[in-house]
Design brief:
This protein is α+β, with helices and mostly antiparallel strands. The protein contains 11 helices and 29 strands.
């Protein structure tokens, strides 16, 4: 299943793309993602034509404290004691100018050595978020002992007095009445050196593992690979628990900028545009007598009659239906998929590669049909197969085909045959996208039936 960060849930861009666009004016972002998502992340950056400072690949997830530590080590290794703006890529922020004003204030405080987080001004007694209790004001021209509370001056923050776990309803209501509690946004701003200094003080085991991970990093085009053994041995912990709840340098800046972390389908419904019946409808959707529902169709018509307060999501891989009140329990479904060893949790109909993507169209005994899209100027590896032959039909664009000793061009509506065992390569020599239909036939059609003889992306059979 795709992470929500890579989905276009609000507007035309994915949440990741929105986060990058929000920040790109400041500096090209350094992204940290799982190894398995690297091609999807790279493709999403390419699609919006924005460069990054690199894509750091985690061999496995170890939470935010190790990930940010390796990023900080990477910055310092380049001779930059950078101000790190740590942003999860699954947030929605609708009032960008307010966010940027708060960010400017956070950077100013970080330059003074503070470790800054953003506290979202609460709009209701929410039990699904952690809270931050604000203490005395800090900032230019602020003296010790100044009263607590929300400050309209974005140049000031507040000393973090306490991080509070998700409360029950009565406690949350008490926080709202008190007026000095904020939702914990999970966004941070601090100097790379300050973060590593505090991490070494409170979690020296994580700091040591991160340093070892960074020492043996390798660069593969836009990808930055951490030392796998060192990183996987690192304890898992969040920035909140590892550092922010312990440091004496923590400061919170109030943020009132239309923030949501899209933690559930219900939260997505709340931030989506809705019709007169309070329905958020996306894609090819037809409804009759439906109220208060979120319905999303990505590949086919979805119709609903006489229902209320539902979440219905259709993708090429699966369909999910849930009540609004239970939509936060999707993780239980994912766990069930894992228990049942269902392939849907790991594989997708559309798969991204460094050269483009392919999508399964049809399959049966001894045959498989794929739609292959090759980016301008990109090319697949020079390869051969032991168990399958392939037919290629060009739909749009121009294909450069290598087949044993031949190299030739194919245009739209032209085709060729790649016999079993033939050394071959598909390339796009133009500045326009190339799309082909590939029909595979043979006694085994798995993706591991590839012997790569040459690859400009450094891949092997074992590491796609």
């Amino acid at each position: 299943m795709y992470p929500k960060q890579l989905l276009s849930l609000v507007g035309d861009h994915s949440l990741l793309q929105d986060t990058v666009i929000r920040m790109h004016a400041a500096a090209p972002p350094l992204l940290v993602c799982n190894e398995n998502h690297r091609f999807m992340v790279a493709e999403q950056l390419r699609a919006i034509d924005l460069a990054s400072a690199g894509i750091m690949l985690e061999p496995e997830g170890r939470n935010t404290a190790p990930a940010v530590a390796v990023a900080a080590e990477h910055c310092l290794a380049k001779g930059e004691d950078a101000i790190l703006v740590v942003l999860p890529s699954d947030h929605v922020i609708t009032q960008i100018e307010k966010f940027r004003a708060a960010l400017d204030a956070a950077v100013e405080l970080a330059e003074q050595g503070y470790m800054v987080t953003f506290g979202v001004v609460p709009t209701q007694a929410e039990t699904g978020y952690g809270y931050i209790k604000a203490g005395q004001k800090v900032g230019k021209g602020v003296s010790k002992g100044v009263s607590k509370g929300v400050d309209d001056n974005p140049g000031n923050g507040f000393v973090v007095q306490q991080f509070v776990e998700k409360p029950d309803q009565a406690t949350a209501e008490g926080y709202i009445k008190a007026g000095d509690y904020y939702w914990n946004s999970g966004m941070f701003v601090f100097k790379a050196s300050r973060y590593l200094e505090e991490l070494a003080r409170f979690r020296p085991d994580i700091r040591a593992a991160a340093a070892a991970s960074a020492t043996n990093m390798t660069v593969d085009q836009d990808f930055i690979r951490m030392d796998e053994e060192a990183f996987c041995s690192c304890p898992a912990d969040s920035i909140d628990y590892a550092v922010m709840e312990k440091t004496h340098h923590a400061v919170v800046i109030p943020l009132d900028a239309g923030w949501s972390d899209i933690g559930s389908w219900d939260a997505l419904w709340q931030v989506s545009e809705r019709d007169e019946n309070h329905n958020a409808l996306r894609g090819d959707v037809i409804v009759e007598d439906v109220t208060g529902s979120y319905i999303r169709a990505e590949h086919r018509l979805v119709s609903a009659i006489g229902v209320s307060d539902l979440v219905i999501v259709e993708t090429a891989d699966a369909v999910m239906i849930a009540s609004q009140k239970d939509s936060q329990h999707v993780k239980k479904l994912v766990a069930n998929l894992k228990t049942c060893e269902r392939e849907e949790r790991l594989t997708h109909r559309k798969v991204f590669r460094p050269w483009g993507s392919y999508e399964g169209v049809d399959a049966g005994p001894r045959f498989q049909v794929k739609r292959i899209c090759v980016n301008p100027g990109a090319k697949l590896s020079l390869q051969k197969h032991a168990h399958r032959a392939e037919h290629w039909v060009v739909v749009t664009g121009t294909a450069e085909v290598t087949r044993d000793d031949e190299v030739f061009l194919l245009n739209a509506n032209e085709s060729t045959f790649i016999p079993l065992g033939a050394v071959h390569r598909l390339a796009n020599p133009t500045d326009l996208p190339l799309e082909i239909i590939e029909v595979q036939s043979g006694d085994y059609l798995g993706e591991d039936d590839i012997v790569r003889l040459d690859d400009q992306y450094g891949r092997t059979v074992e590491k796609e």
